[in-house]
Design goal:
The protein is mainly α and 310 residues long. The chain is globular and about 55 Å long. It is built from 18 helices and no strands. The chain folds into 2 domains: 238 residues, no CATH class; 70 residues, no CATH class.
């Protein structure tokens, strides 16, 4: 399904009253909302994921080949084959120029993309069956497109590809928890990543700017992505201690980060009551996070009524 066909399909599924209602709760910095309900978007995403999903993602500027493939290296691999005596620096420059061209094309496209298109891109990445390294490459390209809580949370909730591999045709391609944990650190702590990248690669910084990151530069939704993923897949006996530590360390102050941290802690409270209470009592948390956490505990149906908030 090409982009033109997708937009026509979405406009046909759109409901004006739903658009008006949804816009009150989903604040998106750059994407126009049409008003298509999530179940309809899921149906479209399943159709795409079962067909030519690679062509679909490539139309939005995604590299679908995975790291280390000709599809990613582009001009760099061509340069290497045409001039085998070329130095590594020349090949690296060709690769960077090709990446920059692709990223600028994505930036131009993403300035006009619909909210529902971003939703469906994320759903497709969740639904397809690909090996872990290829999946994470697509996720890395997708996360900078997130600029609202709805896209973030729907994508995280659909990431059933996280977990220990099994024997089935789909479960064998799951991303192991420890590999996913390491992958998420770049989003939980983007300041550390920025410091590293300044000395390593200007290309990655360009990718973030061109991909449509939060215009305030706070990486609010990248951090939220990391927090919601921890909440969704790592609140286990093995990982709970590490998750709580990250909730204290993660940079707070942005509304949607604070809300995600509070949500994660309230969910942890339902699963690990005493351990989470002790953590909240002793941790250094902002008043904003504590207030939101206490409200979530009050509202939760999974925490015993009348239980201490902290």
């Amino acid at each position: 399904m090409g982009r033109d066909n997708l937009i026509a399909r979405l406009k046909g599924e759109a409901e004006e009253q739903y658009r008006i209602f949804n816009q009150k709760f989903v604040l998106t910095n750059r994407n126009v909302m049409l008003g298509v309900k999530v179940p309809r978007m899921r149906s479209i995403a399943r159709e795409i994921a079962g067909g030519d999903w690679e062509d679909f993602l490539m139309e939005y500027g995604f590299c679908v080949g995975g790291p280390g493939t000709d599809a990613e290296n582009g001009a760099a691999s061509e340069a290497a084959s045409e001039a085998t005596s070329a130095s590594a620096s020349v090949v690296k420059t060709a690769k960077f120029e090709k990446q920059r061209e692709r990223q600028l094309q994505r930036a131009e496209l993403c300035s006009t993309i619909f909210f529902e298109e971003v939703m469906i891109i994320g759903m497709v990445i969740d639904l397809i069956n690909v090996e872990p390294v290829r999946r994470l490459s697509l996720v890395e390209q997708f996360v900078p497109l997130i600029d609202n809580w709805a896209v973030c949370d729907v994508f995280c909730g659909g990431a059933k590809w996280v977990g220990e591999p099994g024997r089935g045709p789909k479960s064998c391609n799951k991303v192991p928890l420890e590999q996913m944990w390491e992958f998420l650190q770049r989003y939980l702590f983007p300041d550390m990543r920025e410091c590293h990248l300044q000395g390593e690669s200007a290309g990655k910084n360009l990718q973030r700017k061109c991909s449509g990151a939060n215009p305030q530069g706070s990486m609010e939704f990248e951090i939220r992505f990391g927090v919601v993923m921890l909440m969704s897949y790592f609140l286990t006996e093995e990982y709970i201690g590490r998750v709580l530590v990250q909730m204290e360390k993660v940079r707070k102050g942005d509304y949607y980060v604070d809300m995600a941290v509070a949500w994660c802690l309230a969910t942890a409270r339902a699963k690990f009551d005493e351990r989470t209470q002790e953590f909240v009592r002793n941790a250094t948390l902002t008043p904003s996070v504590i207030k939101k956490y206490e409200q979530k505990v009050r509202d939760s149906l999974r925490v015993k009524k009348g239980a201490e908030l902290r």
